[in-house]
């Protein structure tokens, strides 16, 4: 997925791997090296005031929806991270990858390549 297309995700409804609605995309975060979209924040809660980082790895998009490969509970219980100046530190990125059970060296799946 290119950056312009990723920015179009802002405000898109987000669903977990079981098809349950999680929230809406708040922001898109791009990798510093590859300049490819890597994370989105998902606004959750009644008023969408809590934002949680979720990896785009394995996510798929359809018309007006983003489907994640993680559960709603996993997103809701993710570590709270405040990205300073719109940027995740290397340690925060590693912590999130670990939390979501992703290996940073993992090659993209076919679904990721289609984004």
TrEMBL record:
<protein>
    <submittedName>
        <fullName>PRC-barrel domain containing protein</fullName>
    </submittedName>
</protein>
<dbReference type="InterPro" id="IPR011033">
    <property type="entry name" value="PRC_barrel-like_sf"/>
</dbReference>
<dbReference type="GO" id="GO:0019684">
    <property type="term" value="P:photosynthesis, light reaction"/>
</dbReference>
<dbReference type="InterPro" id="IPR014747">
    <property type="entry name" value="Bac_photo_RC_H_C"/>
</dbReference>
<feature type="domain" description="PRC-barrel">
    <location>
        <begin position="1"/>
        <end position="74"/>
    </location>
</feature>
<dbReference type="GO" id="GO:0030077">
    <property type="term" value="C:plasma membrane light-harvesting complex"/>
</dbReference>
<dbReference type="Pfam" id="PF05239">
    <property type="entry name" value="PRC"/>
</dbReference>
<dbReference type="InterPro" id="IPR027275">
    <property type="entry name" value="PRC-brl_dom"/>
</dbReference>
């Amino acid at each position: 997925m290119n950056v312009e297309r990723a920015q179009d995700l802002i405000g898109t409804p987000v669903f977990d791997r079981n098809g349950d609605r999680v929230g809406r995309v708040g922001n898109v975060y791009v990798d510093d090296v590859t300049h490819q979209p890597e994370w989105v924040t998902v606004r959750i809660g009644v008023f969408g005031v809590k934002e949680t980082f979720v990896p785009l790895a394995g996510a798929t998009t359809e018309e007006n929806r983003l489907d994640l490969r993680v559960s709603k509970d996993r997103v809701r219980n993710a570590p709270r991270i405040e990205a300073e100046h719109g940027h995740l530190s290397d340690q925060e990125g590693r912590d999130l990858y670990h939390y979501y059970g992703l290996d940073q060296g993992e090659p993209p799946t076919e679904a990721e390549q289609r984004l």
